[in-house]
Design a protein that fits this description.
By secondary structure, the chain is of the alpha/beta class. It has a single domain, classed as HAD superfamily/HAD-like (Rossmann fold). The chain contains five helices and six strands; from the N terminus they run βαβααβαβαββ. Strands 3-2-1-4-5-6 form a six-stranded parallel sheet, with helices on both faces. The longest helix has 17 residues.
Length: 174
């Protein structure tokens, strides 16, 4: 079985901007390449699970999301980082789908394609809904970063809380 890092996108990989879909507006969080390369070198598979309600709200299209995702994956590849799968929930919250975090369908979809040991895996997110998705999915280790949405530190259910993704190297060791 493989161990994995499940990553939210906005606020974790890139700076949080409302309904981000344009390449020119995308800014990687400082340290993301070093941190993900470090995790990959430790043997972790990397996955992105991202709510993109801007699609369901009509602010941008699936094609817009796909173009930005291809560009982002190319930037990772140029830094010798492989993202094994990207899962996206395109629905607005009012649609009550099963894929929108904190629901677990995006993780379940990845588990259909990969044999992942959830006890040895991590989820890195910036919202409480990310952490709840991990807990409901059986992902044992959760890291909440402060670079995205504001959250109540005392109410966080995350195993660890760090300033940004560059700090996960202090937690993930093997």
């Amino acid at each position: 079985m493989d161990k994995a890092i499940f990553l939210d996108r906005d606020g974790v990989i890139n700076k949080e901007k409302h309904y981000l879909y344009k390449i020119e507006d995308f800014e990687f969080i400082d340290g993301v390449f070093d941190s993900l390369k470090y995790c990959q070198d430790l043997g972790y598979k990397l996955f992105i699970i991202t709510n993109q309600s801007g699609i369901g709200r009509g602010y941008y299209t699936n094609d817009d999301f796909d173009i930005l995702t291809s560009w982002m994956l190319d930037k990772f590849a140029k830094n010798s980082i492989t993202i094994s799968q990207v899962e996206c929930c395109p629905h607005a919250p009012s649609e009550k789908c099963r894929c929108r975090k904190p629901d677990t369908l995006m993780v379940e979809n990845i588990l259909q394609n990969f044999d992942i040991d959830l006890e040895q895996s991590y989820l890195v997110g910036d919202k409480d809904s990310d952490i709840l998705c991990a807990i409901s999915s059986g992902i044992k280790n959760t890291i909440q970063v402060k670079t995205g949405h504001k959250f109540d530190l005392e109410q966080s259910k995350a195993t660890y809380v760090v300033d940004s993704i560059k700090d996960i190297k202090n937690i993930i060791k093997e």
